[in-house]
Amino acid sequence: MAVVILSYSIALFVVWRWYPSNTSESSTDHSAQTHGNDLDYLRGLGWHLMKQRELDGAKIVFEEIISKDANDRTAIAALASIYNTQGTFDKTLQLLTERFESGNDFDDIVIYRAFGEALIRDGRTIEAYDIHSRAVEKGLLKSVYQRPMEYIDNLRSQPWWTAADAGVTDLVKELEKHWMTIRDEALNLINVDVSFSAEKEDLTKHGNWKQLIIFNEGRAIQHNCKKTPSTCGLLSKYHELTNCKRCQVKYSLMQPGTQVWPHCGPSNSKLRLHLGLQIPDGAKIRVADTTRSWEEGKTLIFDDSFEHEVWHDGESARLILILDIWHPDITEEQKTQLLPLRPTRDRNN
Description:
Blueprint: E1 3-5, H1 8-17, H2 25-34, H3 39-51, H4 55-68, H5 73-86, H6 89-101, H7 109-121, H8 125-137, E2 150-152, E3 160-161, H9 163-166, H10 169-177, H11 179-190, E4 197-198, E5 204-206, E6 209-216, E7 219-220, H12 222-225, H13 229-235, H14 239-242, E8 248-254, E9 258-260, E10 270-278, E11 283-287, E12 290-292, E13 299-302, E14 308-312, E15 318-326, H15 332-337
Antiparallel strand pairs: 1-2, 3-13, 4-6, 5-9, 6-7, 6-8, 8-15, 9-14, 10-13, 10-15, 11-12, 11-14
Helix pairs in contact: 1-3, 1-5, 2-4, 3-4, 4-5, 5-6, 5-7, 6-7, 7-8
């Protein structure tokens, strides 16, 4: 199985994001001071703290490393990831701008991804694509648009898919046949229920974007399925949804005036389906360099490891059903070996 984890530094970041915390910041300060001149020890301590999801502690350690070796690639990559995850994109720009302008020849995709994301959040999209283009030229990325944390080789790579190419023709037919039932169960909840929760990944540039998860990692969320029994009953018949430990099914509710930052999903191991349920004028999605709109009762399929963004300039709420499926080229062995993408966090696209 050719899974490419893109660098030592990205392994630090991935492990940090997905495991619980139990280490105190005071112990971090003491350890960093005690072993301040031992960079190998500090790198190991930083790794441990990221594994424990001690973001502030890890930041102290890697900033200490940078103070002693301004060109330590692992510390630079880790700090850029931490700063971006904390939403302090200005610190990422401060950390990386001068280093890139001075001609540093980085070979770590984490650094390119973090710098590009910070530039996008700063409104400097053209500069961001220039950084991503440099990563493509160095062989660190396959495309300026496809920038997942985990890239699996030998999978077809294209932004938009048809139901036939994705191997889900029957599923799409059933979704489009019963779309009004799926829609009505959600509409019945919107104004009388607090089940819809806000997007938590700091992807909303402005506006109001909520979700209701009904399947997670191939398993039904029972308390939500009780509220949407027809939808859950319909979807439970499909192996594509119930046998995917990296997948979710959820309603996505977006209010007028909302915009989602351009972003990439974490892995190219899955595809994403959108079923249009309530689609006012002015709601659009861009994947890579192509922009489309939803249609009520129709399905869009795309690879969310490609950069995508959403904006809603209409006058009423946009409602869709989002369904994840395995990429059709993923083997049964890979499905068994690959770990869930979100054991403790929910990703909303």
